[in-house]
Amino acid sequence: MADINAHITGTVFEVHVEVGGTVSVDDEVIILESMKMELPVVAEEAGTVAEILVGPGDTVEAGQTLLRLT
Amino acid sequence: MTTRPATGADTPLDPIESLRARRAEALLGGGERRIARIHDSGRLTARERIDLLIDPGSWMELGMLAEPEIRREDMPTTGDAIVTGLATIAGRKVAILAIDATVMAGTTAPVNMRKQNRVAEWAGRKGFPLICLSDNDGGRVPDLLGWRFSGVPFDFTTFLQSPDGCAAIPRVTAALGPSYGDAALHAAMGDLVVMQKDTAIALSGPPVIKAAIGEDVTGEELGGPDVAAATNGSAHLVVDTEHDAFDRIKRFLSYLPDSGALPAPTVAPREPSTDPTTIGDLVPKSRRRGYDVRRVIDAVVDADSFFVWGERYGPSLVTGLARIEGQTVGIIASQPMHLAGALDVPALRKEAQFIDLCDRFNAPLVFLQDVPGLMIGTHAEKAGILAGYDQVVTRLARAKVPKIAVIMRKAFGGGHIALGGRPVKPDLLVAWPSAEMGFMEPSTGVRTVHRRALEALLESEGEEAYKAEIARLEAEWGAESEPWEAARNIILDDIIEPSETRRVITTAIDFAWGTGPRVSPHGA
Asked: Which of B137, B152, B381, B498 is 20 to 30 A from A63 via CA?
């Protein structure tokens, strides 16, 4: 079980994964928008997406969990 | 308790026996009980630290028999709370001062300072690195009270810098316990300051602060990693354990010459861990899309050679030592993951210090630009963005090591200049075909330059026409921002394919050194 957290405060721009989908190391799983930039959130370990906690347009804080892997 | 050797006139000890007894006592430091207390706190003693850092058998101690000016009968005072000496690391000479927290809590007093000065002067005059292993609570009382403080024997012409006429030497500080007062001074002079994560670096410790200004604060709040590494930049690296700290110190020194008078050492070249011809795929085409520039760096430098310096301070700029074809370089790269890569005051301060480090120790500077500009706004102005910019560009313009700048994507305003733009005299300034150059980002620029016309349009023809005009003007600015005209006017030396980046940097560094010794006059 691993959490993928936001590295910066911003809004969710795009979600690139679905529950049940597999993720490899370095995959861009979510794109956040902050400082007029689209900033990819990258998986640091491989796994299967167990839960997605945010959707496009949501405001997120740095450190907030975006999705969970099993 | 430590047994103190009988040294008075009434003891008929043989002088050699007396020396041996004194040395044995010195090696015990504050004694077994105090050593156990240090171990219980998760720390190592000064002598254990030195043993982990140096080549076995290379230690030559100086000042072992020191005692404080104000003697104590009720506690050990051996060495006056500091261990100093000379040794080798990977066969190269170094000077070391290690605060001994088992003796009078490692506090600083005049004889202790004399020892520090002696070993610092050795390093500075003879031209090899000085390593400070810090762990103390600051100055000692009553040893430094009243007139005594003004009489402290520190000599800042030799302690904090090399003596006049002597080459710069690498200065490394490891904060391995609370580092207040003089121990914080060690950090202030460090070319590398590495801190163990549970320590703090601050001018004064919590008890002094409580007494002086009534502020209740913990060491962590005052100078822990969130402050020292992320807010004021005193520490360049944070590590979990003391062993990690020693590893990093050894690694840092491996990039640098013994002194600024010598070329940086070279090692066997290695191919990058990422195929350098794929570098163009690592930078997104869309100017709004962020990416981690450390992956780009991996496609430029030799595999596993990147040593990040100041990671948490000013993170919109990545600075670090690395090797290209086995030769030391300093990498300065925009990090679009933070502030879109804009240079704020911490990023500029870090850059200025890093440029100085590289120029004193003969590491060519390699810039990877993707910078929307300098940070603007009230926060940046209050923090001193102008002084920060001035500090970088004046130092960089005078740097004498090779300076190679590559524009990968954005190169706007003062940010472009501060990362190797033409006014700071780069030896080579090249761009990828995807580069965008200008004094301001197009989206900001058109709104500034055409502000009145756009406002009039909004009023007379409505929002749709206003937006269409902005889009038209942005496209026009975008065309102006392409790198071709800069190449036609020899502002750029060339436009290169991204896949050529490592090869061009390597060749340019070689020619930029010229035919003389690979040494900048600023450290020699």
From this structure: B381
Per-residue pLDDT tens over the stretch B325-377: 999 999 999 999 988 899 999 999 999 999 999 999 999 999 999 999 999 88
**Where exactly are the structural domains of chain A?**
2-69
* DSSP 8-state secondary structure symbol assigned to residue B424: G
* Domain co-membership, B341 together with B475: no
B197-219 residue pLDDT tens: 999 999 999 999 999 999 999 99
B391's enclosing H/E stretch is helix B385-398
Q: How far apart are CA B109 and CA B181, in angstroms?
A: 12
CA A4 to chain CA centroid, nearest Å: 6
Write out the residue range of the structural domain in which residue B468 sits.
440-481
DSSP readout, chain A?
Answer: -EEEE-SSSEEEEEE---TT-EE-TT-EEEEEEETTEEEEEE-SS-EEEEEE---TT-EE-TT-EEEEE-
When CB atoms are compared, the residue of A31, A37, A42 closest to B336 is A37
Please give the Cα distance from A27 to B432 (Å, whole number): 26
Domain boundary among B190, B221, B255: B255
Domain count, chain B: 3
Tokens 């709004």 -> residue: B288
Report yes or no for ipTM above 0.85: no
Architecture of domain A2-69: Beta Barrel (2.40)
Confidence of residue B287 (pLDDT cuts 50, 70, 90): confident
Sort out which chain B residues have CB atoms less than 8 A from A40's CB and list them.
Answer: 289-291
* Chain A residues touching residue B342 (CB < 8 angstroms): 35
CA atoms within 13 A on the CB side of B442: 18
B382 touches chain A (CB under 8 A): no
Bridge partner list, A39 = A32
- Inter-chain CB proximity B340 and A40 less than 8 Å: no
